[in-house]
Amino acid sequence: MPIVVRPEWLAQVEEETLDPSRRIVDPHHHFFAQNPDFPRYDLKELHADTATHRVEQTVYLQCWEGYRTDGPEHLKVVGETEWVDAFAAQALQIPGAARIGAIMATADLCMGAAVREVLEAHRAASPLFRGIRQIAAWDACPDLLSMPGLEDGNLYGQASFREGFGVLSSMGLVFDAYHYYHQTPYLTALAEAYPETPIVLDHLGTPLGVGPYANREEEIREVWARDLKALARCRNVHVKLGGLAMPWNGFGFELGARPPTSDELVARQSRYYHFAIETFGPSRCMFESNFPVDKCALSYQVLWNAFKKMAARYSEPEQDAMFRGTATRVYGLES
Questions:
Q1: Does 1 have pLDDT greater than 70?
Q2: Is residue 274 part of a domain?
């Protein structure tokens, strides 16, 4: 399902920035250079978006870009960390622009104990390296992205993965988890087995709404909420609030004659956000853009206006945690 960004379509909805002095860390964005399924997005595009709000720092999340083209096969992924580290150095030269405060790269934890070499190479490649994301998304529906090599969706339960995860844990690294909502119990089991390892659940656990999941929102939300509540009992798990504008979530914003306003986004999705916040607590939640993937449906300015409207019911310390503090602590950013 290719992601298409249409600037002229997005420009139909313009809003004034709410609470422009609010300090923000965006803990989830990507850069794309060569992936044909995603729009090109580099430092220029990122800074054009983050300039619409007071975004001080960002966290880069792996997306299979910048790999080395030579050398040992298992170390080619380290090229992504080197590639993003160069962007981070460029960002520091631009006065007032958001800086890249951390890098979440990737490695195949199914290498078991041997993955230590890869993780150490990432760490040597950049002082911004904080951990990895190894995507576990799997579904029997062929229209949904499934990671190669997964037959039942339980990557987190594989013995080789657990061995590699133990290495990551021993090195004090963070693990970002991306999977579909029906896979959340597998992450809960992993978090219970490694209670000292910081785990971040991406994209609110990704409830689905397309293919066999279309027109079943209430049924799916019930399962999503039940499993998210069980996961929240693992105190080492944090959750990213965002990512629900992706096409496979089924809200269909990208199909409209115009993009949604922040009020429309709040009206349609806020119950997911508030459930997660009330279940995990603000100190374990962080708003995320997931740009440029969510940019297929709405602009950066509108998205963060919606977040600010959703957050308005919480206290100032709680808002600061969700917009900045939680991400700063979990990813070891400069405050």
A1: no
A2: yes
